[in-house]
Design brief:
The complex is a heterodimer of chains A (603) and B (554). Chain A is 5% helix and 44% strand. Chain A contains three helices and 45 strands. In chain A, the strands form eleven sheets. In chain A, strands 21, 22, 23, 24, 25, 26, 27, 28 and 29 form a nine-stranded mixed β-sheet that branches. In chain A, strands 2, 3, 6, 8 and 10 form a five-stranded mixed β-sheet that branches. In chain A, strands 12, 14, 16, 17 and 18 form a five-stranded antiparallel β-sheet that branches. The two termini of chain A are 47 Å apart. In chain B, 4% of the residues lie in helices and 51% in strands. The two termini of chain B are 36 Å apart. Chain B has two helices and 46 strands. Chains A and B meet through strand 4, strand 5, strand 14, strand 15 and strand 21 of A and helix 1, strand 3, strand 14, strand 24 and helix 2 of B.
Chain lengths: 603, 554
């Protein structure tokens, strides 16, 4: 989990665990990431050289002006590891240092009120940023955005003591954001005795502002707005709400909300199917807008007369999906199948949500190191294994109807033997990605057991290359992934052939395997964007012969889904091959070769 | 481990969780009505939200009904089922009578089926506002710094518990704060760490901290500026200028095993402020400090004071807390010895029922052993769950007097710990004497299940209850000393009614104590008692008389 909560006590009371679990399921956590080309820190010493022994991650925290920031708390947490998390404050030179870290992958976060980590607009939001022992990090903090205004009722009187909650729906480039469900956990603030609210430390982008509704944050009572339907800025329902643009370091004032104060309905019922006689684990209930994944409310089941009951108030008329989720064991969750309900002018009582086991995907990673040679780094296989990350993400089958985001992503770090287990997944088609332990490693081969082998534990069925299909409640086992050392890199530049010609901003470079027999080997395809100066860069490429292709790319206006590589689909591979063969730009990459200054002309 | 704290933490977590986060299925409805009037002084208060919440600290404490006062200040809550409720005005800018330190939780009321209760009135006053800005030595805003408001006199009024703004007592990104709903009175306002508090700072801490500074910029509490808050008034520009930050210190130490002296890795270290007079460890923090491979630990951000460090263990081991003092330098060489603790094993037994459902509930009960040790520090508390076969095992206990207690997160009030037997003989006060590393076996913990009920009524003679007064009921076994641990507690409602259920058949003594706040400060207490015979599965009526002309101030 990417949160500093990993710094909390080793054992948490069940209820708090539930809260964390719920946050884990709904918050922007590492499992969301898909692209295996993760951003990495600058290597100052080779991680492999330290062997399996603990290492150090160092870094600096700087401000917008590049000056070091003194005494800023920095938190380090492990990715899918048992690492308990640590924290320390920077020194006067802005430096921090985490020593004696076991081999693995780590995330870093600097926290200072009203400041945010400098957003990188070019970064693929699906990337995860992690560090390995031996690496150094630079964290830049800038002032977040501010939104302020007043909440008034229809008579123009202040509405006092209600939470105003920002929901980030677009990034600063206007691209629709995925997983809005994470936003409810972002900093609600309460109106004061004049009805005034002030939200600060906001990431740049477009926001909806919501007041009231079923609010999971109210600590200490029913709350002033309990049972009221949510009012969205300026005085709307969700569907007609206006967006508020927030820029880093800027203050948007006068964002006044006219509170509607209409009473909503109550959705209630019981949760069954959890075998937890000790009541160790809590059960959460989430209400989502049907077909959108938009979060509408959340509550917790409580045990009354041996039954787990729940109730969500302040629900406006509409179509919803309701899900309950809880833990069977510490690391293993169960969930109910999303159930569609309609609220129309009345309460919806008596729902029964049945928790059932989720799916898992497991397998083994093998490492194929090379003998030390030019360009290749020496490795310690144990360390390398622990610095590998397996991630899975559900492929949406029906792009017109979004499924609830819960249990659609997962990840795992393999153990020293290379075994990995990704738990807590809904059923569906999952695309797998592997983050290699270092830039000169690549995924050489991946094999998935076919459904026809059909042993009891093997829920995997035939699926497109790079994906695993698993039915809900089943365990897909026996996936073998071979990581090989010897990956090459390629840096180059696109040069316009005609003088004065402009390189289009949507140009993309594609690599297609030359060998016809490799035509369906998804692992041998890659693609990269072209910067404004024409430069492009690939790392982690399997050695071999390629055809290079320049091709315009239409970026999705919407990042509800992570970017898809063209080669993932059969049709895409055919197109790429046809065009690449016509263009006939061949190149060969030797193991660990770092090919630079490669020039390709654009017509 | 110090599970007592953890249990308290759980309770705290429960009480802090949103009332409606805990929910009851399909809200029960009925035909009961509660009505009353809300006034500000002698004027009706229009538009005040009045809510009804369950009157007991059960997890399903969700709002049952809500109404808003009309232009005459009247409210009427309808469709109520029979039950025990609190009626609470939710008015962030009004204050009610101060009936306890944290503000009252409204008026407690036991409502019968289809009953109409009138005149549940609230006399409120307008609260005041304190607002200002906190700046550092260079005049820059101090962001998200906590503020502490301290009344100079005992305020006559308090805030109602139904409303709480978690962010109010801290500055915003401009260093600005605004405290509202503050009862009229005189206050001091401060920021920072008190020099005589031995304060433990949790989480990832900064090295720098502000020594406690009172408005307008005084570190000496005697020179603290007095802030006057009037009814409906606003104390503006209550700005606090802070001096330079002080630097905290780092404490280093290690954990070694008591028998061989070898370092013990990967242990969680806790530390807390130590009060040498009381010999107790106050608020403590744990979780973010662990011993490394060499058994060493490091605690950053420690402010001057007296502290004790200990191992937060949940297994067979424990440590005696080790005291250290931080004055003006880092501290090193704090050595904590890890010892193997004693164990208590045994079985539980339930009397009073053979109902399988109730028996099954026993596995949800947590058995705790609270050990009063000879060393400094709070009683060491360990917990154990009860296995389906009725066995339990408590481990890691230090030597001392262990008292067994039960925690029931689901508040099945009708299951109680009755007595403890060792080899068939009852142990007085449920206490087991533990010697170092002992293995105490053959302990039988006997719970009882009760289904008797007392329907009580408090009758007042020679006086009435003033607004804000409360009636507390405690039930003792007949013949028990009045200072001994009661079987259970309850609160009598606005009409003097109370219900105590889940009692095992037998003779009891019911004691009612009225707590009457006085504007002068000290509350007055009046006591009355009555013997009651309870039968299983039956309701017994009881009337307890209080002579209001008696009573003493405490």
């Amino acid at each position: 989990m990417t949160d500093s909560s990993s710094l909390c006590p080793g054992r948490k009371p069940a209820l708090l665990s539930l809260l964390f679990i719920t946050l884990f399921l709904l918050a922007p956590h590492v499992a969301m990431a898909q692209d295996e080309r993760s951003e990495r820190g600058r290597t100052v010493e080779d991680a492999g050289a330290s062997g399996g022994s603990p290492g150090t991650i160092t870094g600096r925290v700087v401000g917008e002006d590049g000056r070091p920031m003194n005494d800023v708390p920095v938190v380090i947490y492990g990715f899918y590891s048992s690492f308990a998390g640590r924290g320390e404050a920077t020194d006067s030179a802005g430096r921090f240092q985490f020593k004696e870290l076991p081999p693995g992958l780590y995330g870093l976060r600097a926290t200072s009120p009203s400041l945010i980590e400098q957003p990188d607009e070019n970064r693929n939001p699906w990337d995860v940023k992690y560090f390995r022992p031996g690496e150094a990090a630079q964290l830049t903090l800038v002032r977040g955005g501010v939104v302020t205004g007043a909440v008034m009722n229809s008579q123009g009187e202040p509405v006092i003591g209600v939470f105003v909650r920002p929901i980030r729906v677009r990034d600063v480039q206007g691209r629709r954001l995925s997983m809005e469900s994470m936003s409810p956990f972002f900093m609600p603030r309460m109106t004061d005795d004049r009805g005034i609210y002030r939200l600060y430390g906001l990431l740049p982008g477009s926001y909806l502002l919501v007041v009231g509704g079923n609010n999971p944050y109210y600590f200490g009572g029913g709350g002033m707005s309990a049972g009221d339907v949510p009012t969205y800025y300026p005085s709307s329902t969700r569907d007609t709400a206006s967006e508020v643009l927030v820029r880093a370091g800027e203050e948007t004032t006068g964002v006044d909300i006219r509170y509607r104060g209409e009473r909503g309905h109550t959705v209630s019922g019981t949760v069954s199917g959890i075998n937890d006689s000790r009541g160790r684990f809590g059960v959460g209930i989430t209400l989502l807008r049907a077909g959108t994944g938009i979060f509408e409310g959340q509550t917790y089941a409580t045990e009354v007369d041996g039954k787990r009951v729940f109730s969500l108030s302040g629900v406006p008329d509409g179509e919803y999906e309701i899900i309950s989720q809880g833990n069977i064991e510490r690391d293993e969750a169960a969930a109910s199948v999303p159930r569609r309900i309609t609220v129309r002018g009345a309460d919806v009582p008596g729902l029964q949500l049945d928790l059932s086991p989720l799916s898992s995907i497991s397998g083994r990673i093998t490492l194929e190191p090379l003998k030390a040679q030019e360009g290749c780094t020496a490795v310690n296989p144990q360390t390398a294994m622990l610095q590998t990350l397996v991630r899975v993400r559900r492929e949406e089958q029906d792009k017109t109807r979004l499924q609830p985001a819960a249990f659609s992503t997962g990840g795992a770090a393999p153990n020293e033997q290379g075994e990995f287990l990704v738990r807590n997944l809904s059923g569906g088609l999952f695309r797998m990605s592997v983050s290699a332990p270092a830039s000169d490693w690549y995924v050489r081969a991946a094999s998935f057991p076919a459904a026809t082998q059909g042993a009891k534990d093997k829920g995997a069925t035939l699926a497109p290359p790079g994906t695993v299909s698993v039915k809900r409640g089943e365990r897909a086992a026996g996936i073998n992934i071979a990581l090989a050392q010897g990956a090459a890199s390629l840096k180059g530049r696109v040069v316009a052939q005609a003088e004065g010609a402009v390189i289009p901003s949507n140009l993309r470079v594609y690599l297609v395997p030359s060998e016809r027999e490799r035509a369906d080997d998804v692992l041998r395809y890659d693609e990269a964007g072209v910067s404004a100066d024409g430069s492009f860069s690939f790392t982690g490429l399997a050695p071999g012969r390629y055809l290079l292709l320049l091709r315009p790319y239409s970026p999705p206006n919407d990042i509800l889904q992570p970017p898809r590589m063209l080669a993932w689909d059969e049709e895409g591979r055919k197109t790429l091959r046809r065009e690449a063969e016509a263009a006939n730009n061949g190149l060969e990459l030797k193991p660990c070769q770092q090919l630079k200054d490669y020039s390709v002309s654009f017509r | 481990m110090r599970s007592l704290a953890r249990s308290l933490f759980i309770l705290l977590a429960l009480s802090l969780l949103p009332a409606h986060a805990f929910a009851q299925t399909a809200q029960k409805t009925g035909t009961g009505i509660i009505s009353g009037h809300v006034a500000i002084g002698d004027k009706p208060a229009e538009g005040v939200v009045v809510i009804v919440v369950p009157g007991e600290p059960r997890p399903d404490r969700r709002e049952v009904a809500r109404a808003v006062t009309d232009y005459e200040g009247n409210y009427r809550l309808m469709g109520l089922p029979a039950g025990r409720f609190n009626v609470v005005p939710l008015a962030p800018t009004l204050v009610g009578p101060a009936d306890n330190t944290y503000g009252g939780s409204g008026r407690f009321l036991i409502l019968g089926e289809g009953e109409t209760v009138e005149k549940i009135d609230f006399n409120m006053a307008r609260a005041g506002v304190i607002t200002g800005r906190v700046t550092d030595a260079d005049g820059r805003p101090v962001v998200e710094e906590r503020l502490q408001l301290t009344p100079v006199d005992n305020p006559a009024r308090g805030r109602f518990g139904g409303f709480y703004n978690p962010y109010m007592y801290q500055t915003d990104d401009r260093g600005v704060y605004r405290l509202y709903g503050i009862p009229a009175g005189r206050y001091t306002l401060s920021v920072g760490v008190s020099p005589d508090e031995s304060m433990v700072r949790g989480g990832v801490v900064k090295r720098g901290y502000y020594p406690r500074t009172f408005y307008p910029g005084e570190t000496d509490s005697k020179k603290a500026g007095i802030i006057e808050v009037t009814e409906g008034g606003e104390a503006k520009d209550i700005n606090i200028r802070l001096g330079r930050q002080s630097q905290s210190f780092t404490v280093r130490g290690r954990v070694v095993s008591a028998d061989g002296g070898s370092p013990v890795p990967n242990l969680i270290i806790g530390y807390g402020g130590y009060d040498p007079q009381q010999k107790v460890i106050s608020a403590y923090s744990y979780g973010q400090y662990r011993t490394n491979a060499r058994g060493e630990f490091k605690v950053d951000g420690v402010v001057p004071g007296r502290f004790a460090a200990f191992v937060w263990s949940e297994n067979e081991n424990y440590s005696d807390p080790v005291m250290f003092e931080v004055t003006d330098a880092d501290v090193s060489g704090v050595e904590i010895k890890l010892k193997r603790g004693a164990t208590i094993t045994g079985r539980i037994q339930l009397e009073g029922t053979t109902d399988k459902k109730i028996m099954a509930h026993l596995t949800k009960i947590i058995l705790g052993a609270s050990v009063q040790t000879a060393s400094l520090g709070p009683p060491e508390t360990r917990q154990a769950t009860i296995e389906p076969d009725g066995s339990f095992r408590l481990t890691g206990l230090p030597p001392g007097r262990a008292q067994l207690v039960m925690f029931d997160m689901q508040s099945q009030k009708n299951i109680r710990l009755l007595r403890i037997e060792r080899d068939g003989a009852p142990l007085p006060n449920n206490i087991i004497e533990i010697t170092p590393g002992a293995e105490v076996v053959n302990i039988r913990v006997i719970f009882e299940y009760g289904s008797g009920t007392i329907l009580g009524q408090v009758r007042l003679e020679n006086g009435t209850l003033t607004e804000g007064a409360r009636l507390f009921v405690s039930v003792l076994k007949a013949g028990d000393d009045e200072n001994s641990q009661p079987v259970t507690y309850a609160q009598a409602d606005a009409r003097g009614r109370f219900i105590i259920d889940g009692l095992v058949a037998g003779e009891y003594q019911v004691i009612v104590q009225a707590q009457i706040p006085s504007p002068a400060g000290q509350a007055k207490f009046v006591r009355g008692k009555q013997g009651v015979t309870v039968s299983n599965g039956a309701e017994t009526e009881a009337t307890i008389t209080l002579d209001m002309s008696e009573g003493k101030e405490q």
